[in-house]
Write a structure and sequence with these properties.
Blueprint (H helix, E strand, L loop, with lengths): L7 E5 L4 H12 L3 E6 L2 H11 L5 E5 L5 H15 L4 E4 L14 H29 L2 E6 L12 H23 L4 E8 L2 E2 L13 E2 H13 L4 E4 L1 H13 L2 H11 L14
Parallel strand pairs: 1-2, 1-4, 2-3, 4-5, 5-6, 6-9, 7-8
């Protein structure tokens, strides 16, 4: 079990959505919370709302910018010491057919969803390894498992983070380091990020999802899929069904391939 009491937790995208809820849940567990976010207004509102619960701090940072990551990480370490828990939560989605993406959208999606978690982890991992303690939680997606129209770039970014995250877990195990790595594979979450999505599978509620993630960290879980049967069926179906049969089931029966048809997203 990982006790969060008196731990220092860094949460990216911590001023909105499940990031904000996880910040609150961590404070309720008597942790010190540091949030990184790009939205000044959201940061201000979150600090005002959550400060009565305990020690919460924030940095305005664009995690698509490596220089900002490095500068902010050094500032954090000077002010707070090394972190105990890193939750790589921040992410974006464009929601277009691939040919409709421009170069900036492709680069931005990968820089935030894929490169940033790696760069942020790199800023704190050496200290964790020296102390032989720490926990890294990476929010991937059920899109890490299933290809989906109008999600090609997002899905690719999440497939990559899933592969990196679980490889990191195995590396820490091979090196006999007491550093836990948890990879989260949630379905669509009702936070505004996926507004407009139409799904036959129930969309997840933000509060319950955030609580599941925090509990997964506390229990040192390795891989957690929220809406768990999807993970198991997908793995099974992809292994035993032909591509055409799996496409028929996922597309026609489950309706997954049409979920992004009315996507609007967060403005």
């Amino acid at each position: 079990m990982t006790k969060l009491k008196n731990k220092t937790i860094l949460i990216t995208g911590g001023a909105s959505g499940i990031g904000k809820i996880m910040s609150r849940l961590s404070l309720e567990r008597k942790a010190k919370v540091i949030i990184w976010d790009i939205n000044t207004e959201n940061i201000g509102n979150t600090l005002k709302e959550l400060s009565p619960l305990g020690n919460i701090f924030a940095n305005l940072v664009d995690i698509s910018n490596l220089q900002e990551i490095e500068t902010t990480a050094q500032k954090l370490k000077k002010e707070h010491g090394n972190i105990d828990v890193l939750i790589n939560n921040a992410g974006i989605v464009v929601g277009k057919y691939f040919h409709e993406h421009n170069a900036t959208e492709i680069e931005k999606t990968f820089s935030i969803n894929t490169s940033a978690p790696m760069h942020i982890c790199n800023q704190f991992l050496s200290e964790m390894m020296t102390e032989n303690a720490g926990h890294i939680c990476n929010i991937a997606s059920s899109a890490s498992l299933v290809a989906n129209p109008k999600m090609s770039v997002y899905a690719a970014s999440k497939w990559a983070i899933f592969a990196w995250s679980d490889s990191l877990r195995l590396e820490m195990k091979q090196l006999q380091k007491n550093i836990q790595v948890t990879t989260i594979l949630p379905y669509y979450i009702n936070t505004g990020m996926f507004d407009g999505v139409q799904s036959r599978i129930p969309i997840l509620e933000a509060e319950a999802t955030a609580l599941t993630i925090i509990k997964a960290i506390e229990k040192n879980k390795k891989i957690i899929t929220i809406a768990g049967w999807i993970y198991r069926f997908t793995r099974f179906g992809q292994a035993f069904m032909s591509v055409d049969v799996f496409d028929w089931f996922a597309g026609s029966i489950m309706g997954i391939y049409k979920t992004m048809g009315e996507f609007r997203g967060r403005k």
